[in-house]
Amino acid sequence: MTLIKSISGIRGTIGGKQGENLTPVDTVMYAAAYGTWVKQQRNKEDYRVVIGRDARISGAMVQQLVMNTLVGMGIHVIDLGLSTTPTVEMAVTMEHADGGIILTASHNPKQWNALKLLNNKGEFLNAAAGQEILDIAESGAMTFAEVDALGKITNNDAYIDLHIDEILELPLVDVSAIKKAGFKVVVDGVNSTGGIAVPLLLEALGVHPVKLFCEPNGHFPHNPEPLKEHLGDLMNMVTKEHADFGIVVDPDVDRLAFVDEKGEMFGEEYTLVAVADYVLQHTPGTTVSNMSSSRALRDITEKHGGTYTASAVGEVNVVQQMKDTNAVIGGEGNGGIIYPELHYGRDSLVGIALFLSHLAEEKIAVSELRSRYTSYFMSKKKIQLTPQLDVDAILNAMEKRYATEEINTIDGVKIDFAENWVHLRKSNTEPIIRIYTEAKSQEEADALANRFIGELKELAGL
What we know:
Its EC number is 5.4.2.10. It holds the Pfam family PGM_PMM_IV. By secondary structure, the protein is α/β, with parallel strands linked by helices. Helices cover 38% and strands 22% of the residues. It folds into three domains: 3-157, 3-Layer(aba) Sandwich (Alpha-D-Glucose-1,6-Bisphosphate, Chain A, domain 3), CATH 3.40.120.10; 162-371, Alpha-D-Glucose-1,6-Bisphosphate, subunit A, domain 3 (Alpha-D-Glucose-1,6-Bisphosphate, Chain A, domain 3, 3-Layer(aba) Sandwich); 377-460, 2-Layer Sandwich (TATA-Binding Protein), CATH 3.30.310.
């Protein structure tokens, strides 16, 4: 059982001992620390925070603890109830709120939950803000409101509909073409809030949804991370139903993957590639993904005459890079689509709408669309080092060894070769170096990873 306190939020398993798990005591403490931070940002009379949750079993309990803690600090709460991460992000700005909290452990199993923390722009906190909240919790410097100054809770269950309305108004979402195409799509909502939001979006677009695991009861029918090995039921249902394709999202609906009409994975890395292809056709410009995402996004960006740049790993870093470069589309290779025309956050719903627009415009099958993109294969490995070793020195030595290659050091060391790449990142909590590689065959990607494991061991004297 685990409690992970990081700059990106508080995540842990339900039950167990205080300080070692996400217990009610820990939940209240970190909610209070966040509330204190919110009040430090601006000196005003009324503070408002938006709260929403995915459908996991512990969600209702955790939400009551978080909301009433904020009420006890004199903060008004807008309760979205069952919602999605991108919906909460949008609600923060639409409500002109001071922040937001999404109660979700994303793709983690059902025993996990987490507090994902947002600023007043509906975006994830940067490292400095996250550290401030951890420091407040550690110091215990939280002050609560007196009885006449308690906050209030207001329920608002309209935001998924409002989110969909905003998507339908986007110029690149071709509602008439999608309706004309008459798509039939299988939806795996992993028994969370994607089972609510995705069918509503599809119906609004004139798409016939076939629901699979769309009951938001929090009993995940398979590992909720949207990877091929977990999606056999979806792959079978697509072919059984003769559907045009399948959609799967994670429990909080910020990761998106597709299955083609043959029941084959489109590839999580290629969700962003396909959506970017469509966006760039209509609005040429810059794209961004993190350094561990597929080179295929760079390929498609350059094909459309644009410029691709890579950020450090982490959504907040991708968003900042997108703002710095005025990117028209970006995201992460785990199926995270960030479309700034709507908002700066990973959003499966807008990804689905743009993907459907692409298909409707091209009038081709999903498998044919996938065949247009260069196939790359990834290998993800790690090497365990002894605590005495200087990991930074090892990575610096690797950087010097490959100084004649294209090197990026904003997040570890990434070496771009002509036909493949390797990204070496150290863990923040353990003496581990993670080795990510990509090449044009799985064998080549694995061989490249093994080669660098050997070189790292040599530099470490292992």
